[in-house]
């Protein structure tokens, strides 16, 4: 069931565009919409690069996976100096 919901969420923008094309035959997409789309894609890519650079570990570090602490709380994964 979760896969069905994810698949439907994936298809929603395509269905919206198809509906727009059906209701407006022969009309082109306005230029402002194209620029907003390009700005959204650019911001998404910039956010992905920022996130990747903020959570990386150095090449010589060893990854220590997340674990449960003594009090039952999750201790996040981290990079540790090599042994």
In short:
The protein has 83 residues and is of the alpha+beta class. Helices cover 55% and strands 12% of the residues. The longest helix has 24 residues.
Topology summary:
Blueprint: H1 2-23, H2 31-54, E1 62-64, E2 67-68, E3 74-75, E4 78-80
Antiparallel strand pairs: 1-4, 2-3
Transmembrane segments: 32-52
Keywords: Membrane, Transmembrane, Transmembrane helix
Give Rg in angstroms.
Answer: 22 Å
Record the strand order, biggest sheet: 1-4
Distance between the termini: 44 Å
- The 3D shape can be described as elongated
Element-by-element helix/strand order:
HHEEEE
Average pLDDT, to the nearest integer?
Answer: 91
Helix coverage percent? 55-70%
- List unreliable stretches of 5+ residues: none
Strand content: 5-15%
What oligomeric state is this?
single chain
What structural class should be given to the helix and strand makeup? Answer: alpha+beta
Number of helices: 2
Number of strands: 4
Describe the sheet with the most strands.
2 strands, antiparallel
Keywords: Membrane, Transmembrane, Transmembrane helix
């Amino acid at each position: 069931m979760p896969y069905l919901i994810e698949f439907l969420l994936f298809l929603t923008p395509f269905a919206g565009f198809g509906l727009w094309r059906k209701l407006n035959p022969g009309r082109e997409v306005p230029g402002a919409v194209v620029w907003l789309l390009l700005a959204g894609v650019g911001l998404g890519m910039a956010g992905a690069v920022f996130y990747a650079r903020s959570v990386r570990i150095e090449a010589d570090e060893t990854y220590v996976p997340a674990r449960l602490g003594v009090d039952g709380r999750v201790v996040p994964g981290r990079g540790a100096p090599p042994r």
